[in-house]
């Protein structure tokens, strides 16, 4: 027993000091993919040691500055401080969002930390160092990875934020975490503000995943794009026109688009199957606009599913504790029906 405890203690100390740096696929081809193949018992022990590292009373700045995240810790929360408030995880408030669940926030950051400390890569650059040097705004981009089962299909989740910032902690991190629990490989895109640049970053992210599908252990067939608010517009545009239209590779359009609360009305005859949901009290995205768009797609013979929830405002995220709770399971079922 003493030898076993010493082994666990040594394991924890080693990874606490080594952490996981911001790296590209090229950097992680060898070690990080091997490190991800941990014994289930060791993973369980690590989770027990890490789970209480962050609590609702943890300062947001302490998460951002945690050495385990290296340079990408600053991308977990909005890079522009004007768009969030609060000192602790419990107090986090994002502009234009409602109902942020502190317990889910804590679960997300503990997930990222525990997997990073276990030697897994949880963040990938989508642009090269040269590209970032030529365009410094690309420094604030990348993909957080919530790993599912090896060989499972993947989803890319894009948060809203009015194309001014990325509200990932309400609009994409929770979704990706839940999708990974269901076995799917889920990515959270951190993109540049602006509709055009955001779509370019999404196209680049999809191209990146396709290019490195083998190393990432993802199935690229019938991938899905998920988004809320501005992120829903991005997902819809990429669904309508494909990655190549925004500077990405000439790749298939998504097999499914999942949209939350957006007034996006544009569509094409080639749009993919689309799931959408919105609150009836949304003062930013009129639910009738969403319904009309889904009806137009349905009239073209495109599979659709639409839900509107009485009393809900904009930005309800997973909808935990509301009339919308469970919508994500319906969206997953819709995606699976298209596979």
What features would you describe in this structure?
It is built from 14 helices and 10 strands. With 339 residues, it is of the alpha/beta class. It has a domain at 122-337: 3-Layer(aba) Sandwich (Rossmann fold). An 8-stranded mixed β-sheet has the order 3-4-6-5-7-8-9-10, with helices on both faces. A two-stranded antiparallel ribbon has the order 1-2. Strand 9, helix 13 (287-299) and strand 10 (304-309) form a beta-alpha-beta unit. The longest helix is centred in the first third of the chain and has 17 residues, at 2-18.
CATH class assignment of the domain at 122-337: Alpha Beta
- Order of helices and strands, N to C? HHHHHEEHEHEEHHEHHEHEEHEH
Instruction: List the total number of helices.
Output: 14
Number of strands: 10
SSE diagram, text form:
Blueprint: H1 2-18, H2 25-28, H3 31-35, H4 40-50, H5 60-64, E1 84-85, E2 93-94, H6 102-117, E3 123-124, H7 129-134, E4 142-146, E5 153-158, H8 168-171, H9 173-181, E6 185-190, H10 195-211, H11 213-216, E7 219-228, H12 230-241, E8 256-260, E9 274-279, H13 287-299, E10 304-309, H14 327-337
Parallel strand pairs: 5-6, 5-7, 7-8, 8-9, 9-10
Antiparallel strand pairs: 1-2, 3-4, 4-6
Helix pairs in contact: 10-12
Entry keywords:
single chain; 339 residues; alpha/beta; Rossmann fold; 8-stranded mixed sheet; two-stranded antiparallel ribbon; 14 helices; disordered N terminus
Short description:
With 339 residues, the chain is of the alpha/beta class.
